[in-house]
Amino acid sequence: MSWLLLWLALAGCAQPVPEPTYRIGFSQCSMEGPWRQAMLAGMQRELSFHPEAELVMLDAHDNSDLQNEQIRRLVKQGVDLLIVSPYEAAPVTPAVEEAYASGIPVILLDRRITSQHYTAFVGGNNVEVGQVAARYAARLLRRRGSIIEILGAPGSSATLDRHRGFVETLRDYPDLRVVGEVTGDWRDKFIKPALKKLLLAHPDVSLIYSHNDGMGRGAYEVCQELGRTRQIRIIGVDGLAGDVEGIDLVRRGRLSASLLYSPGGEDAIRTALRILHQRPYKRENELGTMVIDSTNAVTMQQQTDKVISQQQEIEQQQSLLQRLRATYSSQQVALYVSLASLLGAVVLGGLAWRSARRNRVINRQLAVQNAKNDEINHQLLAQNQEISQQRNQLEELGERARADTEAKLRFFTNFSHELRTPLTLILGPLEELMGGSANFTSPQRQDLRLVRRNTQRLLQLVNQLLDFRKIEVGKMAVHATEANLVSFVREIVEVFAKPAKGRGVQLRFLPDEPVLMAWFDGNILDKVFFNLLSNALKFTPDHGLITVTLRRNDDDQRLQVIVTDTGRGISEQDRSHIFEWFYQGDQGAVAKGSGMGLALAHGLVRLHQGRLTFNSQPGRGSTFVVTLPRELPEALLSFEPPTPVTFALDEPEPLVAEVSDGPEEAGSETLVLVIEDNVEVNDFLARKLRTGYRVQTAINGTAGLELASNLIPDLIVCDVMMPGLSGLELVARLRADWRTSHIPVVLLTARGAPEQKVEGVQAGADLYLTKPFNPTFLLESVRTLLANRDRQREHYRRQLSVEEATTTTPTTSADQKFLADLTAIVEANLTKTDLSVEEIARSLGVSRMQLYRKVKAVLGTGVSDFIQSLRLTKARELLLDESLTIAQVAYELGFSSPSYFATSFRTRYQLTPSEFRALHTSPTH
C-alpha cells in the first residue's frame, strides 16, 4: 500500500500543470508587398516568446467581400481574440461589429473602421506621416517649388489620411504647390506611364511625395529615364530594411528620405496578450514616425542588422529550450512506465525502491533544468528590453547626427563666404597694381607675385573644402563623357613640366598606347591627377625622377594611371591614415600641406567608381595607382562636351582683370545704388563705379530698399548674404513694387553653386556674379544693362506715337500696371488745363521725384511730355469727328488756347489740325 501511495505522489509531482492555450485569429487584407510581410514577421517574432498562444492567419488578397467572409469564419472557429487589418474601412465594418458583439476582443491593426466597436487600435498615424512629409519637403526645397504626389490605393484609409496631412500642412508654405497627382495601388508598375506624362507636362517639378517606398523607387526609375534624377528629390514612406527597401534606397541616393511607418506586428501581439491575460492595456496605440535620410540611414541599417542578429540568437536559445523540454517529456514518460512497473511488481519491493530513488534523482535534475529554463526566459526578456532601449538610443543619436550635419553645412557655407570676400579685396587691387603702369622695382614685383600666388593657393584650399563638403553630403555628381584618357593625362603632366625642369626633376609620361578611350568626368579626374602630381613634385628631391604610366588592366575593362616618385616615401605609422581628411603626417623638411589633397583624391576616385591605392618604401619613394573603369553606369554619362580645365603653378593666371581708373564723370545723370554689408567691398565697388556714374551706398538690405524706393536709381549692385534682409529677398520686393520693378539688379555673392545662381535669377536678378569678381566684367555688365534699358525706353517712346492712346506691354507686370494706372489717370483728367505732375503723383501715392524717375526710366521721357503725347494722340481721334470744331477739340483736351493746340499739333505731326482733318475726312480720301 505504501508503494502505491508513493507512486501516486510521484506521479502528481511529475505531471506539469498545463498552461492555457490561446488561439489568435488574424485577418490580413493582403500579404503582397514587403511591408505586409514585415508585419507578419514581427508578429511571429513576438509570439516566439509566448508558446501559450498560436496565430491563425487568413489572407484576403485585397478583397473586402472575401475579408468579411474570413472574419466570420474565424469567429465560428472559436478564436479567443481577433486581429483585423482592414482593406477598406466601410465594407469591413459590419463583420468586425458582429465579432465584437459576440464577445470576442477585436484589435484593429494599421487601419481603422467606421465604427467605435472594437477593443483596441494599433498602428501609425497616417495624418502625421503626411504632415512630416510636407514639413521635410519644405525644408528640402527651402519653402519654394512644385510637387507631384503619388497616392496609394483609392479608398484606402492610409491613402486618404496621408494625402490629407500632406495637403493641410502645405497650406503653411504658400510657395510650395502640388501640380499633379498620380494614383497607384502601392506598386510601382501602375504609376510609371502617368508619372512620366505628368513630369513631361511640368518640367519645373522639384520633388515627388510617394505614399510608399516601392512607388518611390518606380518614380526614381522614371526620373532616371527622363534624365532628371539630380533635379527631382523623392520622399517615400515605410522605411523598411532590406535590399531595395526604404533604408537601402536612401543609402544609395534613390530616395532623399523615407518616413518610418512601423508595421506594428510586435505591438499588436503584445496588446493581444495583455487583453488575453487580463492585464491593463491602452485602447489607442499610435506608433510614431521619423525621417530617415542620408544622416541616419546607415545608423538605422546597423540597428536593424543588430536586431536580426540578436533575434537569431534568441531563436537558437529557444530551439535549445525546446530540446530540453522534449528531453523532459521523454524522461517523464519513462518515469510513468517505471512507476507502473513498480505497481505491478509489489513483490519486488527492493527493485521498486531503487527505481523510485532513481526517479527522485531525475526529478531533481529536471527541477534544476526547469530553473535554468526560467533563467533563460528571463534573460531573453531582458535582452528584448535592452534591444528596445538601444533602438530608442539609436533614434536619438540619429536625430543628433542630423542636427550636427546641418550645423556643419552652415559652417562650411559661412566659412566659404568669409574667405571669398577678403579674396575679392586682395586680388582685385593686386591685379590692377601688377597690370598697371606703376614703376615697381624688381623685388617689389616679386613680392606682388608672391602675394598673388599665395592668395590663389588660399582660393584652392577653399575650393577643396567645398569639394570635401559636397562629397560628404553626396552633392557632387559625375558627368562622364567619352574621350582619350591619354591626351587628358598628358595635358596635366605638361603643366608640371616647367616647375619640374626648374628643379632638375625628370618627369616622364609613358602610356602603353597613344589612344585609350574611356568614359570619365574630366572635372573630377583633373583634381585627382593634379593632387597626385603636386604631391610627387613636392616630396621628390632635386634631380629626382617622377614617372606617370598609363596602361590597360589585364581584363581590358579597367585602366590604370600610375604615378611613381623617388621621394622619401611614407612612414609606417602614416600609411593607415594617409587618406584621412586633414591628416598631416611626418613630412620632414617639406612645408606642411592642408591634409586635404590625398583625401580629396581618394574620395573623388571612389565617386568615379574607381580605386586609389598606394605602395611606398621609406627612402625609396612612393607609387600611387588610380584604377578606373572604362565603362560607367548610364546614370553617370553625359553627352555634352566637357568644360576645358586649365592649371597654373608658378605664375597663376590672374583671377581679376586689370581696371584703369579714369576721371570721374561728375556730370553723369545715371545713378547706381551699391548695397553691401562689408564696408571694404562697399567702398571698392563705389570707387570703381564712380568713374562713370553717380553712386549711392547702403550697408544693409533694409536701408538699401528704402533708398531704392526714394531715389529710384538706374541700377542696383547688391550682395546676397546680408544680415536682416538678404539680397534675394530684396530683389523680390523690388520686383513686386511698381516704383522699382524696372531697375536692373546685379547680385554679388560667394555662393557659387549652380542651383544658387539659378535661385538668384529666378528671384529676378538680371546678373549673378560670384566673388572674387572681375571689376572690368562688372563695369561692362553695368554698361550693357543700362544700354539695354535705353533701347527699351526708345521702343516705348516710339510706341507713344502710334494711333492707340495706350502704350505697349512692358517686360514686367509691375511696369505694365504702372503705365496702365498712369495712362488712366491722365486720360481721366485730359480736360484740365492745369493738370500738374504733383497732382498725378498724389493720385499714384508717390512723390514728384519718384514719379519723374520712374517715367524717365521706363519711357525715357518726362511726365509732361507723356501727358502732351497722350493729348495729341487723343486729338487725332477727336479731329475725325466733324461735329466738333478745332477749338472744341483743343479745350476738350486741356489746351489753354486753340493756337497753342495748333502749334503743338503741327510740331508733332508736321500738319495743322485743319490740314489733318481735311486729309482724313475728304471725300476723295
Automatic annotation (TrEMBL):
<dbReference type="GO" id="GO:0005524">
    <property type="term" value="F:ATP binding"/>
</dbReference>
<feature type="coiled-coil region">
    <location>
        <begin position="373"/>
        <end position="404"/>
    </location>
</feature>
<dbReference type="InterPro" id="IPR004358">
    <property type="entry name" value="Sig_transdc_His_kin-like_C"/>
</dbReference>
<dbReference type="Pfam" id="PF00072">
    <property type="entry name" value="Response_reg"/>
</dbReference>
<dbReference type="Pfam" id="PF13407">
    <property type="entry name" value="Peripla_BP_4"/>
</dbReference>
<keyword id="KW-0547">Nucleotide-binding</keyword>
<dbReference type="InterPro" id="IPR011006">
    <property type="entry name" value="CheY-like_superfamily"/>
</dbReference>
<dbReference type="InterPro" id="IPR028082">
    <property type="entry name" value="Peripla_BP_I"/>
</dbReference>
<dbReference type="Pfam" id="PF02518">
    <property type="entry name" value="HATPase_c"/>
</dbReference>
<dbReference type="GO" id="GO:0003700">
    <property type="term" value="F:DNA-binding transcription factor activity"/>
</dbReference>
<keyword id="KW-0067">ATP-binding</keyword>
<feature type="domain" description="HTH araC/xylS-type">
    <location>
        <begin position="820"/>
        <end position="919"/>
    </location>
</feature>
<feature type="coiled-coil region">
    <location>
        <begin position="300"/>
        <end position="327"/>
    </location>
</feature>
<dbReference type="InterPro" id="IPR001789">
    <property type="entry name" value="Sig_transdc_resp-reg_receiver"/>
</dbReference>
<protein>
    <recommendedName>
        <fullName>histidine kinase</fullName>
        <ecNumber>2.7.13.3</ecNumber>
    </recommendedName>
</protein>
<dbReference type="InterPro" id="IPR018060">
    <property type="entry name" value="HTH_AraC"/>
</dbReference>
<feature type="domain" description="Response regulatory">
    <location>
        <begin position="671"/>
        <end position="786"/>
    </location>
</feature>
<dbReference type="InterPro" id="IPR003661">
    <property type="entry name" value="HisK_dim/P_dom"/>
</dbReference>
<feature type="domain" description="Histidine kinase">
    <location>
        <begin position="414"/>
        <end position="632"/>
    </location>
</feature>
<dbReference type="Pfam" id="PF12833">
    <property type="entry name" value="HTH_18"/>
</dbReference>
<dbReference type="GO" id="GO:0000155">
    <property type="term" value="F:phosphorelay sensor kinase activity"/>
</dbReference>
<dbReference type="Pfam" id="PF00512">
    <property type="entry name" value="HisKA"/>
</dbReference>
<dbReference type="InterPro" id="IPR018062">
    <property type="entry name" value="HTH_AraC-typ_CS"/>
</dbReference>
<dbReference type="InterPro" id="IPR036890">
    <property type="entry name" value="HATPase_C_sf"/>
</dbReference>
<keyword id="KW-0808">Transferase</keyword>
<keyword id="KW-0175">Coiled coil</keyword>
<keyword id="KW-0597">Phosphoprotein</keyword>
<keyword id="KW-0418">Kinase</keyword>
<dbReference type="InterPro" id="IPR009057">
    <property type="entry name" value="Homeodomain-like_sf"/>
</dbReference>
<dbReference type="InterPro" id="IPR036097">
    <property type="entry name" value="HisK_dim/P_sf"/>
</dbReference>
<feature type="modified residue" description="4-aspartylphosphate">
    <location>
        <position position="719"/>
    </location>
</feature>
<dbReference type="GO" id="GO:0043565">
    <property type="term" value="F:sequence-specific DNA binding"/>
</dbReference>
<dbReference type="InterPro" id="IPR025997">
    <property type="entry name" value="SBP_2_dom"/>
</dbReference>
<keyword id="KW-0238">DNA-binding</keyword>
<keyword id="KW-0902">Two-component regulatory system</keyword>
<dbReference type="InterPro" id="IPR003594">
    <property type="entry name" value="HATPase_dom"/>
</dbReference>
<keyword id="KW-0805">Transcription regulation</keyword>
<keyword id="KW-0804">Transcription</keyword>
<dbReference type="InterPro" id="IPR005467">
    <property type="entry name" value="His_kinase_dom"/>
</dbReference>
